[in-house]
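Structure in, sequence out. Go:
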């Protein structure tokens, strides 16, 4: 069974929810989940908010839909703008929103 999801519309929705959330962020898994190896989540982050430093659970990418983010791992920083695909490093990392931003986090959990 095929299904279509507008990532742009979902990104707008997550940004709207993030604007009202005390944490300044909102997320919805649009594909996969705990029962699957592949998981894709649309995340909205208000400017100045972040996903605190954490370990990478497997292979992962970040596809920026809107805004401007920074992916940080130790002293190395990658800038992400709309359309950019950032490869998440294997080690500890964090994501910071420079502007109100939305992105798709894709993770394949290691077995």
């Amino acid at each position: 069974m095929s299904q279509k999801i507008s990532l742009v519309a979902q990104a707008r929705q997550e940004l709207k929810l993030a604007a009202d959330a005390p944490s300044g962020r909102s997320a919805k898994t649009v594909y996969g989940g705990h029962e699957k190896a592949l998981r894709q989540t649309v995340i909205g982050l208000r400017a100045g908010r972040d996903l605190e430093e954490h370990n990478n659970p497997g292979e992962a990418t970040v596809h920026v839909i809107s805004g401007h983010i920074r992916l940080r791992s130790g002293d190395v920083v990658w800038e992400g703008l709309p359309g950019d695909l950032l490869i998440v490093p294997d080690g500890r990392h964090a994501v910071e929103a420079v502007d109100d931003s939305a992105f798709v986090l894709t993770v394949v959990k290691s077995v």
